[in-house]
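Worked Example 4.2. Consider the chain below.
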Amino acid sequence: MPEIRVALIGVGNSACALTQGTQYYKNAKEDTTVPGLMHVNYGGYHIKDIKFVAAFEVNKDKIGKDLSEAIWEKPNVCEKFADVPHLDVKVSPAPILDGVAPHMRETFNVYDDNQTTKESVVEKLKETQTEVLVNYLPVGSHDATRFYAQCAMDAKCAFVNCMPEFIGSTQEWSRKFEAAGVPVLGDDIKSQVGATILHRNIVRLCLDRGVIVDETYQLNLGGDTDFQNMTVENRLKSKRISKTEAVTSLVPYALPTRIGPSDYVPFLRNKKICYISLKGRKFGDRPINISVKLEVEDSPNSAGVVIDLIRAAKIALDRKISGALLSMPAYAFKHPPIQVPDSVARQMTEDWIAGKRER
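Applying the procedure from the previous section yields the following structure tokens:
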């Protein structure tokens, strides 16, 4: 049977949802519409073909545990929706670098000794025959993301960058991955039905119907470690760029915009609440105001997309495609190499799966 060997960078809420999802959908029938999945069969790969083989963490209560146990350790708050059996994947220590902000050291329960080297990470990836390395580092992990991107190239793994550090969307790193002979998919995961995809579609609807958008904002609240980490503004630079460009790239003119995380509310746990506002002008220059509130469980929302990205990365490896992918990232990321309307990106993705597009 086919197999996709996956390693995780970070065993937080997102990793918890993804790990549960591979169990929840392992018996999904390919000839039916399955709630929560965009693709049961993705280019010949089923969800049951995903096999976790390695994981890296800085939390001393997660390091050394089996992945099936580590995903439930504090500060994780992702709700349980599937039983996860013993996976025989021992969580390895990760280099801290800038992956842990000073204000997050206690929350993340960071281990004391940081002797993990690039060589040891690459060795683990090679030893476990990892094919796809998924980056779940916290927002603001500039150096750490680049560290693991290099590890992926050295170990000949595909790299799926779920975080808002610009790797797959830059020519510099795309050329590096091309030279290494492996694919990179990025950047910054666009959730299944999240704030960004909803905001984009509201803006697209207005533009398609002849409405001039004069201003818009998107405010996000959450209670997990992702939002706690983002309470420090200097870690948010690339995140704000990513979320803002995902929306403004659709508008052919400049407009006042404010998009990004706005507050950390601990009792919300893994719930994310988004407020979107848009003001515009329709026929006769008459005003139109749109206000939307979205509530979702944040981590499963992203896992619903990552579960396809892993299979896309495997297909790219099978087809010996190196460098940045274009089609699937345009559909799945906030800051992909190319920005197109979501309907176009979806068709590009389906064409790519069918082998009608090179990337």
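The radius of gyration is 20 Å. The longest strand covers residues 212-222. Compare this with Example 4.1 before moving on.
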